[in-house]
Amino acid sequence: MKVRDTLQLRSFAEYKEAYNQSIENPEEFWASIAEKFYWHKRWDTILEWDFKKPEVKWFKGGKLNLTENCLDRHLDTLGNKTAIIWEPNDPDEESRHITYRQLFVKVSHFANVLKNNGIKKGDRVCLYMPMIPELAIAMLACARIGAVHSIVFAGFSSKAIASRINDSQCKMLITANEVYRGTKPIKLKEMCDEALKETPSIETVIVYRRTVEPTPMKEGRDKFWYDELQKAEKECPAEVMDAEDLLFILYTSGSTGKPKGMVHTIGGYMVHTTYTFANVFQCDHLAAAGVKGQVKSVPDVYWCSADIGWITGHSYIVYAPLAAGVTTVMFEGIPSYPDYGRFWEICDKLDVTHFYTAPTAIRALAKQSLDLVNKHDLSSIKVLGTVGEPINEEAWHWYNDNIGKGNSPIVDTWWQTETGGIMISPLAGITPTRPTFATLPLPGIQPALMDPEGNELEFNSQSAEGRLAIKFPWPSMARTIYGDHQRYKEVYFSTYENMYFTGDGAYRDATGNYRITGRVDDVVIVSGHNLGTAPIENAINEHLAVAESAIVGFPHDIKGTALYAFVTLYDGKEPNDALRIEIRELVAKTIGPIAKPDKVQFVSGLPKTRSGKIMRRILRKIASKDTANLGDTSTLLNPDVVQEIMDKAL
Ligand code: WT7
């Protein structure tokens, strides 16, 4: 019996029972899950926590290595099973199928490259990589030797790379020379070279050659992946780690200031992500249960279309699927190349059974001709998933009807970079779904809806709306912000006493199902990417002509939310289109193209309170063309400016 089988709940009654047990006795509950994994030494205590400090420790004293759970443990039973199927950007290039045994060999081999280049347990390694198997190999190699990876999404700018490297003092940077996304070459190494001018902590750069383009290399510092492998031993015993040692740092936007380096630790992250993966997606289980009326003898093929540079990819492309022994797909390209049918072509070609994507992708694909869907055979699909932002009713139905053909459950999974793993979601084929609802908390998760006074709206079989908090620790929660524990405390644990605050609003129906309504802070979710308004404003304000700026979100039919910039200029500076372009480019260069505002409006002033705070509420309404009721503007320092902004709104 595979470990995953022992983790899977098989019916709604079993879910209920597990949930109740997890509330009555959380420690016993999580220990019974943790026991299913491979530990060198059992933990001394299951949970120690104090949300006031805040401090959370799971499985303290337990010794393990996550890669033994993702790789070594499977070799006897699943050694020849495909671990990763890689689908290249160019459909004419061959896919790669890597078995668990091959992955084990590759990870061990590359782990020695890290060691040979001076990387030791606890050192931070920055990864700026395209979606190729070597990204997963590099992550796992870090975990193998106890190094801490910090992945920077390969769409981010040089400045973003540099600030993240410097924040956590990475010793090594791993990248690729370049990669094609659609027809566009992305010069990753050049982006790194720009960043490396400002990152004194980097001693070595390892470069994977993805294309034949010549690559500028700096003597002594830059080394090719392949050359280093030639010099390295193949076998690499796993470093025995403590459950609370760091596994990785992943940066996420905050509503103010610089990005937050969320710290995830090994034991709890492994237990929670694998448990939630097994239960939410129910791989290799639903066919037997007859969800699609077919029993297949071939194992399931699970595909999450996210980029590994985000938490979704960390948890649900790499770590959890591998720990669960499932075949996971990695796709290098984009949904629109060579045409908007690419996702469906891949599902058809690889017989994908589980497909997990973001609402923004669904909305973009739903705009295309249905022929692009219908010319592909999607009968292998059993389960669909969404993540990253609220899904609207229309997109949900399009996905359900056209991709799931009305008989594949949709799991709408709510969670965050900070939560590490899924928190609220249906279990596929088990929990009754309701369009746009993430439904019920997973076992071990204790959500709370809070009213404006900070009181909990306890469940009383009536619907309620409020802000979403979590009352009790769960194993994969981030333990701190790297180098800034005080900020961790302020952002997450100071809004409500003894609770973790999510930053999201939520509605709960009379049967206890949750629907996430969106951010209630100054974070904007654009195409499923979490962006803080403050860093974008800071970037715009760097422009010599700009005096001040304010960024708000407005509804967009594909991106969900898009960005609108209100900008004031210094006296004598001309507002014109050239300046608009410069501002957008500056944002792309400072943060990344995803943060470029769709609209830039030049205004003579920003609406401010008497204490000097920008009244974003008003700007949000103007940007959303919802100006019928602007609310109270009497407290404004400069009420006249509002009419001017409305008159010239874009
Ligand atoms: C924010 C976290 C979780 C991995 C990807 C995003 C929003 C996430 C849902 C969902 C409604 C969702 C929330 C959350 N969000 N999933 N199923 N329904 N909203 O991770 O970048 O840390 O963003 O994404 O607003 O707070 P992230």
From TrEMBL:
Keywords: Acetylation, ATP-binding, Ligase, Nucleotide-binding. Residues 15-70 form the Acetyl-coenzyme A synthetase N-terminal domain. Pfam families: ACAS_N (PF16177), AMP-binding (PF00501), AMP-binding_C (PF13193). It is an enzyme of class 6 (ligase). Residues 73-473 form the AMP-dependent synthetase/ligase domain. Its EC number is 6.2.1.1. GO terms for biological process: acetyl-CoA biosynthetic process from acetate. InterPro entries: Ac_CoA_lig (IPR011904), ACAS_N (IPR032387), AMP-bd_C (IPR025110), AMP-bd_C_sf (IPR045851), AMP-binding_CS (IPR020845), AMP-dep_synth/lig_dom (IPR000873), ANL_N_sf (IPR042099). PROSITE patterns: AMP_BINDING. GO terms for molecular function: acetate-CoA ligase activity; AMP binding; ATP binding. Residues 536-613 form the AMP-binding enzyme C-terminal domain. Belongs to the ATP-dependent AMP-binding enzyme family. This is Acetate--CoA ligase. The lineage of its organism: Bacteria, Pseudomonadati, Bacteroidota, Flavobacteriia, Flavobacteriales.
